[in-house]
């Protein structure tokens, strides 16, 4: 924690050209799950399986973005944002995962991208935000190589259609979640619980990333288009930094969550300690000769999603089958001090600062963007002066402190060029359904009415002036 001011200062100015954006993902907002030829994804199957998602919520309707594109793009415009990070639903483009291309899907995203450009907002497009076509999961999902090649083909199809317009291409969102929550702990779709499967998924996601970049570069024509990947890197601390065992626990978590992705993606190798830590689970023979060269394609921007910190120590031996940390049999998490958000995540702007600095130190040649940061709170709209207001003072405070942390990272030399608040609007929060509100815009799920929260008004001032406003 900063001894000086707790990151609560206003008046700091971001460099000219800094990107202030907001982020969403297809399954969380679109709805229209069976319209215009969209095929089922693993999240449709998972959310329709009793007991997987709170209240049995699904993305069938979500916040109906599919039918509200124009008004929602107007909303982004009215917030003064210069970029919007969206994801494309693979099952809308290639409904069976392989084979036939669905023209209606391409037309939909073309409408979104054109609608952004016409309003002067740069489209930042993520190709995979967790909605794997179900037919591919039926063939093995991310545990098999075929899925990586299918992804590359999908990337090519999208790149051919939108490659003259998209500003930033992001291959994957948080492959850590796709691999370890999807195939290890089973908390996310497809809900499998196998340590070996989760490590196979790590590799095939990395391979998909590299293969997709190769295809994109063949077809993208926008001269200033840039390429990126978004990882949710852990900001892990050792419970006792003077205790080598705790420091080793931290090393192990960083290998699994961070370097398992960034080293192959940005450096072209898997960390030796990761292979050693997991050798009782797999011999990694699913990594074929030449794969690492394929994965290690040049990119321009390292995207980081940051929400909270973790602290670990050496603990007693325990099984890690069915967890998100394969092989970390002697790592124990320490409860993080509060305050916490509605997700139970601790609020730690210092963690964002530390993570940005550490990432820059490890991979100094890359530009960095915060592709997600934000907070869930139990917002309640109130009637005031004949209109609706949402006084989300905690979220304003959260954003203020994290933007100050980002600003300090820039001052410390981190080439941070953009920041996307999660999320533009309240939406389907995966296994939590609609119970967690992350939006800076409130959504009434009965009427689909959108109402800017105080945080949206605060963020607009920041985006329009580049200067951190008072909370
Ligand atoms: C991230 C996801 C995003 C959202 C936030 C709260 O892990 O990328 O879709 O759910 O968490």
Q: Any overview of this molecule?
A:
38% of the residues lie in helices and 15% in strands. The strands form 4 sheets. The chain has an 8-stranded parallel beta barrel with strand order 1-2-3-4-5-7-10-13, surrounded by 5 helices. A 3-stranded mixed beta sheet has the order 6-8-9, covered by helices on one side. Strands 11-12 form a two-stranded antiparallel sheet. It has 471 residues and is an alpha/beta fold. The mean pLDDT is 98. Bound molecules: beta-D-fucopyranose. Beta-D-fucopyranose binds at residues 25, 28, 173-174, 177, 232, 305, 372, 422, 429-430, 438.
Question: How many beta-strand segments?
Answer: 15
**Distinct ligands:** beta-D-fucopyranose
Uncertain stretches: none
| Measured distance between first and last alpha carbons | 19 Å
Put simply, the count of helices is 15
Spatial strand order of the main sheet: 1-2-3-4-5-7-10-13
> Any idea what the radius of gyration is?
21 Å
Strand content: 15-25%
Q: Note the main sheet.
A: 8 strands, parallel, barrel
What is the average per-residue confidence, as pLDDT, rounded to a whole number? 98
Which class of secondary structure composition applies to the elements? alpha/beta
Helical amount: 25-40%
Along the chain, the helix and strand elements come as EHHHEHHEHHEHHEEHHHEEEHEEEHEEEH
Q: What best-fitting shape do the alpha-carbon axes yield?
A: globular
């Amino acid at each position: 924690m900063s001894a000086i001011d707790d990151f609560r200062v206003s008046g700091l100015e971001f460099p000219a050209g800094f990107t202030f954006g907001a982020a969403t993902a297809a399954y969380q907002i679109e709805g229209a799950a069976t319209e215009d030829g969209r095929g089922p994804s693993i999240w449709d199957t998972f959310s329709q399986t009793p007991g997987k998602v709170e209240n049995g919520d699904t993305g069938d309707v979500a916040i109906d973005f599919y039918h509200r594109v124009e008004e929602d793009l107007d909303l982004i415009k009215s917030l003064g944002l210069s970029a919007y990070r969206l994801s494309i639903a693979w099952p809308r483009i290639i409904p069976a995962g392989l084979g036939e291309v669905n023209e209606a899907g391409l037309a939909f995203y073309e409408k979104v991208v054109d609608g952004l450009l016409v309003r002067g907002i740069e489209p930042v497009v993520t190709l995979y935000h967790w909605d794997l076509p179900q037919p591919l999961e039926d063939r093995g999902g991310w545990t098999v190589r075929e899925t990586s090649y299918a992804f590359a083909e999908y990337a090519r199809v999208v790149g051919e259609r939108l490659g003259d317009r998209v500003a930033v291409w992001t291959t994957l969102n948080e492959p850590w979640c796709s691999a370890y929550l999807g195939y290890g702990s089973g908390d996310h779709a497809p809900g499998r619980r196998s340590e070996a499967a989760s490590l196979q998924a790590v590799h095939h996601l990395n391979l998909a990333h590299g293969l997709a970049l190769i295809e994109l570069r063949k077809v993208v024509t926008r001269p200033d288009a840039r390429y990126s990947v978004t990882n949710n890197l852990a900001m892990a601390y050792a419970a006792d930094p003077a205790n080598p065992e705790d420091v080793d626990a931290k090393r192990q978590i960083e290998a699994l969550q961070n370097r398992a992705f960034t080293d192959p993606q940005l450096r072209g190798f898997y960390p030796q300690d990761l292979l050693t830590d997991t050798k009782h689970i797999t011999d990694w023979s699913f990594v074929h000769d030449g794969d690492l060269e394929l994965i290690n394609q040049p990119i321009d921007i390292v995207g980081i999603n940051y929400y909270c910190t973790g602290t670990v120590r050496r603990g007693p031996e325990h099984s890690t089958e069915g967890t998100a940390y394969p092989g970390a049999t002697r790592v124990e998490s320490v409860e993080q001090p509060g305050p916490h958000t509605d997700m139970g995540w601790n609020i730690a702007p210092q963690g964002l600062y530390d993570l940005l600095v550490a990432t820059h130190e490890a991979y100094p040649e890359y530009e960095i963007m915060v592709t997600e940061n934000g907070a869930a709170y139990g917002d309640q709209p109130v009637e005031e002066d004949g209109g609706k207001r949402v006084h989300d003072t905690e979220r304003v405070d959260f954003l203020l402190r994290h933007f100050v942390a980002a600003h300090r990272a820039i001052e410390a030399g981190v080439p941070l060029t953009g920041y996307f608040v999660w999320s533009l609007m309240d939406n389907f929060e995966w296994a939590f359904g609609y119970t967690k509100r992350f939006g800076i815009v409130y959504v009434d799920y009965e009427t689909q009415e959108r109402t800017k929260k105080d945080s949206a008004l605060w963020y607009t001032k920041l985006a329009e002036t580049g200067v951190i406003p008072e909370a």
